[in-house]
Structure formats: C-alpha cells, structure tokens
Amino acid sequence: MHLPSTEGGIRSRQDDMSDTVGPTADDVSHDLANMNFSSCPREVMLLQLTLIKMLVDKAESQETEFSTRQKYCEILVLLLKEPKISSKLICLLSSCDQLLSHMASKSLASLVYFQLKEENALNVTWLTHSLKTLLEFPMCTQVAECLWTLTAIIKDILKDETVPKAGILKKLLSPLDDVLEGFYNSILLHHFDSHLYTSPYSEAANNLISFTDLLEALQASRIELELPLKCQRVLFLKVSYVLNIISSSAHYFIKKKFIMLLKKCVLCKPGEDTVSGSWVLQNPYFYEDMLALSNAVLQVVNLTWLNQIPLGEKASYFGSSEALPGDNTQSGSDQTALRAISLVVLKTLEFKFQNSATEAEIKEVFQSSMSQLLTFWRSHMKCSPQSHPVVHHCEWLSLVFIEQDDDMWEAAKALLLSYLKFDRLRRDAADNLSQKEEESWNFLTHASGYNPHCIFLFFLEKIAFDSTVLLDFLISSETCFLEYLVRYLKLLREDWHQFVNVCNYFDTKHGTSQPVSSIKPPHQEKQSCMSDVNLQNAPCEPEPQTLIPLTTSHNCLVFTTEQGNNEVAESNQSKSLLCNDSKSPLGSLQSLVNYDSSEDSELESVGKECLVNTKQMPLNNEHETMIRETVCSYTDDKQNKLKSQVLPLKQKGCNTSSSLACIVPSDNIVPLKIMLYKSTKCLEELQNAISRLQRRNLFPYNPSALLRLLSHVEKISKSINAP
C-alpha cells in the first residue's frame, strides 16, 4: 500500500525512521476499501485478498497480543463501513479465475463472520446477494460460490470456542431458513441421469458437490441449537431425494459424497473436523428425524435399491488408480463406499428396532433388509485366491469391515443391539418359549447373519485370537469397542450355553476338532443342554471341498521333552491346533516393524513380537512404552505356556524323557474344543493385561466394571467346564 519512494537517492535507516509516520487505521481501511481490482495484476489482487483474510485471523486469534488485536479490529471495523468492499468481493466470486474466486469467497466469509461476532450484525450486502442467488436457481445456475461462502461462515462459527454459537448461528441462518429449504427441493429434484452430471467438472456437478458440503455443515450446527431449523431437518425429512441420486447415473464422486454424508448422519458425526459434540441427547426432533430417515432407507432397501448402486472400483493403490505390472491384487469394489452404505442400512435397522414396540413391527422388515444386505455384500466382495470361501452368513460382517475398525464396531454394535431388542420382544410376547421356538430363533439369527456369538468368534479368528488387538481397541478413543464389549459380555454371561454351541459349530465346520484321549483339557466343557443341530443346519453356501482331517488314522500324538518340560511337537498335521488359524483371510498377524533393529527391541521383541493396532488414545511416550512393556511381557509369558496347556496329557506308559509316539486307543475318545479354548483364553489374557495396566495406573480410564464382567465370564467358564 505505502511503498517507499526511490527518489532522492539512498538515505540512512535512521533518517528514514525519523521522517516516516506509520499509517493509521483510517489509512489502511481506506486503501483496502478503494482497491481497484480490475486494474491490478492478478498476483496483487491475490495478495490483497490474503491480507483481508489474515487481518481477520489475527484479530480473532487469542495468541495475538491484546493491543495488536485491537488495532486489527479497528481496521476491520472501518473497512466494513465501506459498502463497496463487500460488493467488490461478491463480484470476484463469479470470476472465471478459480483461485481468485476461491480467495474472494474465503475473504468474504471472514468479513461476514467478523461482523457477526464483533457487531452482532449480518452483512446486508452479502445476505441480499445470497437470497437473490438461491431464489433464482435454477434460472441462474451459478450458485456454487454462494454455497462455499455460507459453508465457510458456518465452519468458522463452529470452530470458535469463545463465542455463544447458538445466538450467532440463529442470526445467520434464520433469514435463510425458508430459502435453503426451497433450494434443497430445487437442486435435488433434477434429472440426474442427464449428461450435465456425468462429469465432476461441470457447473451442475460443482453446484451439487458444494451443496453436500453445506448440508454437512448444517447438520454439524444442529448440536448448537436447542430447536433445529427447517434447513437443518430437511435432509432427514426428504432423504428420498438423496437416495435417488445415489442410485442414479450421476458421476460416482457425487454419489459417494452423498453416501458419506448419510453415513455421518446415521453415526451422529457430521463435521467431525469442526465439532466435538453429539446429537444423541438432543431434543425429540432428533428421534423424529432419525425415524423418518430410517423408514425411508429401509423402504428403498426392501425394493432392491442396493442392487441399483454401481460401486466404483477399489482405488487403493499408492499415488495411482492403476495396479503395478505383475500385481495380482484384484481390484473389487470401492470398500469405503461399500462399508458406508452397509453402515447406513445397519444403523437405520438399529434405530427402527429401538423405536418399535412389538416383534411383528420389525420381523419382516429386518429379515428382508438383512437378506438384501447379504446379497449386496456377496456381489461386491471378491475373495482372494488364498482365502477360504465364505460358508456362513455371520462371517460377512468381519470380512466387509475388517479394514476399518471404527466402522466395524459400529456395525457389530448395531447388530448386537438389534439382536437384544428382537430377543426381548419375542420373550415379552410369549411367557414360555418351547425348544422348537428357540431352535427356530437360533436358525433365524444365523440365516440372517446377525448371531452375536458367531460375529464375535469370526472376528477373533480374523485377528488370530490376539488379546493385544482387543486391548488396543479398548484404549482407543476412535472406536465404540468398549460399549460393544460390555454389552456382549453381559449377553455372554446370560447366554453361555448358546456360546458353547456356536463354538462346537466352529469346530465341526472348520475342522478344528481334534480327537485326543479321554483325559479332559482345562477348558473342555460339559455337554450343553441344547444341541447344535440348528447351527449346522443354518443356511450356508456349500463347501467347495471335503476338509482334510487333522489327525492320522492312528490318532498319533507326538511329544518331545526339552529341559524337563513336555511340549507337543509341531508336526504339519497339528500346526493348526497349536498356532493361529491359517484359514483366516488375514492369516497369522505378523509384525509390521522389525523391532530387533530399534531401541525398544528389549521391550517389544520378547519372544513373538506384539502387534498392536496403531489407533490409540494420545498418551505420552513414557506411558506408551510402559504399556507396551507390560502387555508384551505378559503376552510372552502366555505364549511360552500355550503349547503345554493346550494338550496337558500325561499318559501312563509314555516315556517323557525322550521323543516317542503315544498311540491312543480309538475307543473312549472325546473331541478337544479348540474354538472354546482359544476364545476364552483370549478373554482371560485380556482381563489379565487390563489388570496389570490398572495396577500400574497406566489404563486411560477406570476399567473396574469391565474387569468384573470378564471375571464373571471366566468363573462361568471354569465352573461349567470343571471335571
């Protein structure tokens, strides 16, 4: 602005400082207001726009000194008194130069927000322009810039922790409420099969993409208002418009934006980068809106809506959408969109369940929706040649969500809550349920893929029964695993016999049952009161081949003696008994880092390296190291004892001082329950690891209630399985 003159030669710095007087606030604001954008070079215009944005940021920053902040505020107040500054910025919004248009939008949003906060007044010039632009749509199609500005203003308000957000949001949105509701109808009632929406770079697509961002900002702002405005509710009450876009032939990027928006809404997490609250405890409008959304989603799901969604290809290659030469990885469908759509269906089912009073209201809808969802998963999930085919419907959940732990536990929790509500409603409807009704109920849970015991065991199988992975989920703030586990352990405490039956089913179907001598292992359970016929008869896809038995024809078990301790020799036929299941799609969990070359190798490479999921709550380095040391040392102790505890057999006549083969008679043989042993052992290791961390004050919260549940489950297991 005030560039020094080069006339008169070179002067000393002291003379220059003595003669020059700094510009006043009036001078700066006057120069900013009288900028001639049309005659300035592009770079100077961008610098001027950046300066306006910087002034607002400095004026609002708490890190700026108070006196300096006051000076910035004086400049901005004087600047806002000049009506032409807003008009010039609005003119730049329609510039063909996208960078200029973007910077003008950001600068205008900053000025409007500053005026709202400091003067409690809405910028009349901007408001008039916004109302005119939105009302003239679709006759005037250039609305994206207007939507950008409004979205930026809302986000600025939500990020500011020093202002009463409710009052400012109401002052901003109230004049626009009716217009935004009408604009929702106008922009989403178009024919999206038109060529205008087949490219993400067209003006029509740009308008739609900008509107999704505004919708998310409006949903994120709901938490601040006691009573939501119509523009904040319209997405829920008229969600059918969005569902039509998702199944249309519009560009895939547009459809994915709306899919992700719906996912955030059903999880009550819109605008996670700007807000930290939740809708859950809001007013009754929330339940009314969620119920409307749930009914609309489930209605189209039952009309084969899922089959009409053409998911894009999986784009998971680093820096590219194409596979490298020689890469045998199958592309498959876009897993992010697949999980998002699945979560929308599962969460709407959960909400429908929680707001239903009778079994008849939900039984047909639930079965139909789950059937459609299972078909959807089967058509979009491509198993690798190394993985085993899916032979049970309950396995699909872990296969679909295993790559995204927060989504996985949201989905598992939704199905668990639906199961609990369904079970309670059917028990309320009948005082005493017959055995046939119980078997029919169990058959239904497996056929529809939501049996909670199956889902939990399939997940444990995928993580190779590693208790440290469960521990990592528990201390993470990014998943709802704690809530899920507490609810599941309460169910397990009351429904132990069904858990045992499901474990028996796993041993039968997966070939993990190993004939051994009649000497009972520590966790061999008694005969349960109900047979597992209903599990074996659950609808499954036919197995491709006959499972090879794990034992030889003579049922031979080989023992070796090493330093006085009996261990089971790891022959090729018994590896699956002692090690993690090789049939899991993930296989045995392997370390991602070679800790032998790191400074922490003493703590983290004891025995088998402890693989811990990287999603953890923020802890300081000292606590994190202590947690790893505690967990890894404990896991190492358990691994050293595992082989001797799986088969604690000591036959008479067997020479334990040398290697020999013990021939077990074919009569008087009972199966070893591998799945029951592995799952209960995993929970026991989790309990002990939590207890060790709690004693050292390293656990991030009080786990007493969780430990009581784990202890109770352990007591049930030992008391029932005691010889």
UniProtKB/TrEMBL annotation:
Ranges for domain Protein Lines N-terminal come to 149-503
**Span of domain Protein Lines C-terminal:** 681-714
What InterPro entries does the database record attribute to this sequence?
A: Lines_C, LINES_N, Protein_Lines
Q: Where is this region: Disordered?
A: 1-25
Give any Pfam family that matches: LINES_C
PANTHER family this protein is in?
Answer: PROTEIN LINES HOMOLOG 1, WINS1, 2 PROTEIN
Name of the protein this chain belongs to: Lines homolog 1
Q: Which organism is it from?
A: Anser brachyrhynchus
The organism's lineage? Eukaryota, Metazoa, Chordata, Craniata, Vertebrata
